[in-house]
From TrEMBL, chain B:
<keyword id="KW-0067">ATP-binding</keyword>
<dbReference type="GO" id="GO:0005524">
    <property type="term" value="F:ATP binding"/>
</dbReference>
<keyword id="KW-0547">Nucleotide-binding</keyword>
<dbReference type="InterPro" id="IPR015854">
    <property type="entry name" value="ABC_transpr_LolD-like"/>
</dbReference>
<feature type="region of interest" description="Disordered">
    <location>
        <begin position="1"/>
        <end position="21"/>
    </location>
</feature>
<dbReference type="InterPro" id="IPR017911">
    <property type="entry name" value="MacB-like_ATP-bd"/>
</dbReference>
<feature type="domain" description="ABC transporter">
    <location>
        <begin position="26"/>
        <end position="244"/>
    </location>
</feature>
<dbReference type="Pfam" id="PF00005">
    <property type="entry name" value="ABC_tran"/>
</dbReference>
<keyword id="KW-0813">Transport</keyword>
<dbReference type="InterPro" id="IPR003593">
    <property type="entry name" value="AAA+_ATPase"/>
</dbReference>
<dbReference type="InterPro" id="IPR003439">
    <property type="entry name" value="ABC_transporter-like_ATP-bd"/>
</dbReference>
<dbReference type="InterPro" id="IPR027417">
    <property type="entry name" value="P-loop_NTPase"/>
</dbReference>
<protein>
    <submittedName>
        <fullName>ABC transporter ATP-binding protein</fullName>
    </submittedName>
</protein>
<dbReference type="InterPro" id="IPR017871">
    <property type="entry name" value="ABC_transporter-like_CS"/>
</dbReference>
Length: 391, 244
């Protein structure tokens, strides 16, 4: 080929995008506007991620902190298992004996209202998410202050959310209606909650008094019950036989999150909002670069007439897209993190590095996809139009 | 890349003339270009034959719609003719693939567009460097050549200006310098005076003629302005797609 004889030297010391960066500088007003939109979306992305993880923490951090792999519920309870399921002592005994089960323990879960009847905040109403378990259970936390609860006697270990209301070790809470007396014996200084309510840990017997609203001696049947069997299963264990035998169903710990009140609705709402946000941002970015590319049509025709391969022009345009998206997303994420840090403690808000990184990556990725569709029209520009009006 | 001195180019030009061929220049043979088909077919170029030797400056005049733009489009490899052959610097453009034609435009053909057609965001100097960046040859020699050409077209004081800061004449000169950057064999000039007044038109055409001789390009200028022909070596007239 005659043209291939010319030597192709690639000793270029220039960055591979010549025009893109100069266009960015020249049309900085327009790109700043676009960048501001992307940055604001990034701020919103960080705040939504923080809110989503904050809500998730408020909903299920209590469950997440339990050192179990599964929970076995009454098979008849198919939704909101924590309020609808009841299991019997025979069930957790069967589970304990089954192959592949490393540990099986009764777990009680109930929500109660109580009043501070002795302590600095006397008269204060508190909501409690009571987790009942045996005192020697692996699920019973080691308190930061005070001691753990003992068998019987109404001792409870409170967590940070309850402590934030002013409840201290030594205070006495009294459950509404049942009048069950609860003495605060320990504090786990961590944000542990369930269904947006602070968790307290109690002995199973105390839990049963609260759950059934019965002070004094428990009836024989109630004394042998719990909400679920907390399980630690060996990886890949087949538990279908013990499930059938006991009439229970083992859900993974993560699957139980949906059983927490409001959790599924909250997470699906947040996911919907985030999904729309990313879709809108991809469309806005795509629309901007469509208009930009259409405006550049004459320049693109000129570049092609000067002998620029389409690949060169596309690479230049995409590099511009990436520079705008990455810069704007980084700036927006930084602002979002600053705002978010100020919100921690004032709202159900928590920042996780992975959630923020995912949010930023999605914004850049989907934005780039939208812009790629827009700059694709570069391929269709005819260099002939560079010659101007046909005469 | 090499920076051919004016003398070397002149030698090349006389060699080509001496051997009696235009192999290093531009050679159009019986080129016909038909737009559309059937009843709506329009013949833009009708059996056009044109040879331009290196260092030769040919002006093509004709009224609007006579096929002048089509001549440039075909000679510059922007459009494939319906029949006939176009040879640039010894290679037959009409037999190349689209990709090869793009490369041919980049390395062997210089365009000076109507109203110069500069890129808004680039300074005059950057306008000149861009074609070599596209070709992956942006090195110190290229920068030196750019400065040399800017000097040659009298824009040294404007090297850092962007198009919106330039006058029509300055834009035209920047466009000419850019077209010469890759040391093209063929220089194609489209209506260089459409945006200029009488005095500046004459000046622009004189500059094109001078650069044609200095760089040994085979230059074709199309224009409807019959008053600027004095500097051309040859004037051809185009009527209804035919060249005389």
């Amino acid at each position: 080929m005659p043209w291939s004889d010319a030597p192709v030297t690639s000793c270029s010391v220039e960055i591979p995008v010549f025009l893109a960066l100069r266009d960015l500088r020249f049309a900085r007003g327009r790109f700043a506007l676009m960048g501001a939109v992307v940055a604001l979306i990034a701020v919103l992305g960080v705040l939504l991620s923080g809110l989503a993880s904050g809500l998730a923490d408020a909903g299920v951090s209590g469950l997440r902190s339990l050192p179990v792999t599964h929970m076995a519920f009454d098979a008849k309870a198919t939704s909101e298992q924590f309020s609808r399921s009841t299991v019997e002592a025979e069930d957790w005994e069967s589970w304990s004996a089954a192959a592949g089960v490393e540990r099986a323990e009764p777990f009680g879960n109930t929500l109660v209202n109580a009043q501070v009847t002795a302590g600095a905040e006397k008269g204060e109403q508190v909501n409690l998410a009571v987790f009942g378990m045996t005192p020697h259970s692996a699920m019973a936390p080691a308190p930061t202050e005070g001691r753990s609860f003992a068998e019987g006697g109404g001792g409870i270990v409170i967590t940070r959310e309850i402590a934030d209301l002013g409840v201290r070790i030594g205070d006495v809470l009294t459950a509404d209606r049942s009048e069950v007396r609860l003495e605060v014996v320990g504090l786990l200084d961590e944000p542990v909650s369930y269904g947006h309510i602070g968790v307290v840990y109690a002995d199973l017997e105390t839990w049963r008094h609260l759950h059934y609203g019965l002070p004094g001696e428990l009836p024989e049947a109630a004394a042998r019950q719990a909400t679920a069997v907390a399980l630690t299963l060996a990886p890949g264990a087949d538990v279908s036989a013990v499930e059938r035998a006991t009439g229970t169903r083992a859900d993974t710990r993560e699957a139980t999150f949906d059983a927490s009140p409001g959790y599924a609705a909250e997470s699906s709402t947040m996911a919907l909002i985030k999904g729309f946000l990313y879709a809108i941002s991809a469309l806005v970015i795509g629309a901007f670069f469509t208009v930009w590319t259409v405006q550049r049509k004459a320049e693109i025709a000129l570049l092609k007439a000067l002998g620029a391969p389409t690949r060169y022009i596309l690479r230049d345009a995409l590099a511009q897209v990436v520079v705008v998206l990455v810069t704007a997303t980084a700036a927006g994420t930084a602002v979002g993190l600053a705002l978010g840090s100020a919100m921690i403690g004032k709202a159900p808000f928590s920042l996780s590095a992975s959630a923020v990184a995912t949010s930023a990556a999605l914004l850049v990725g989907l934005g780039a996809a939208g812009a790629a569709v827009a700059v694709r029209r570069i391929t269709a520009v005819d260099p002939l139009t560079a010659l101007g009006a046909t005469r | 890349m090499t920076v051919p001195a004016a003398g070397a180019a002149a030698t090349a030009a006389s060699d080509a003339t001496a051997s009696g061929t235009a192999a290093r220049g531009l050679d159009l043979r019986e080129v016909t270009l038909v737009h559309g088909d059937g009843d709506t077919a329009v013949t833009a170029l009708d059996q056009v034959t044109l040879r331009v030797a290196p260092g030769e400056f040919v002006a093509v005049v004709g009224p609007s719609g006579s096929g002048k733009s089509s001549l440039l489009a075909v000679a510059g490899g922007l459009q494939r003719p319906t029949s006939g052959t176009v040879t640039v610097a010894g290679a037959e453009l009409t037999s190349l693939t689209d990709k090869q034609r793009t490369e041919a435009r980049r390395r062997h053909i210089g365009f000076v567009f109507q109203q110069s057609n500069l890129l808004n965001s680039l300074t005059v100097r950057e306008q000149l460097l861009l074609p070599l960046h596209i070709d992956g040859r942006l090195d110190a020699a290229a920068r030196a050549r750019a400065d040399e050409l800017i000097e040659a077209v009298g824009l040294a004081h404007r090297a850092g200006s962007r198009p919106h800061q330039l006058s029509g004449g300055e834009r035209q000169r920047a466009g000419l310098a850019r077209a010469l950057m890759a040391s093209p064999a063929v220089l194609l000039v489209d209506e260089p005076t459409s945006a200029l007044d009488r005095a500046r038109s004459a000046e622009a055409v004189r500059l094109i003629a001078a650069q044609t001789r200095a760089h040994g390009t085979a230059t074709v200028m199309v224009t409807h302005d019959t008053a600027i022909m004095d500097d051309a070596d040859r004037v051809c007239e185009m009527v209804d797609g035919r060249l005389s």
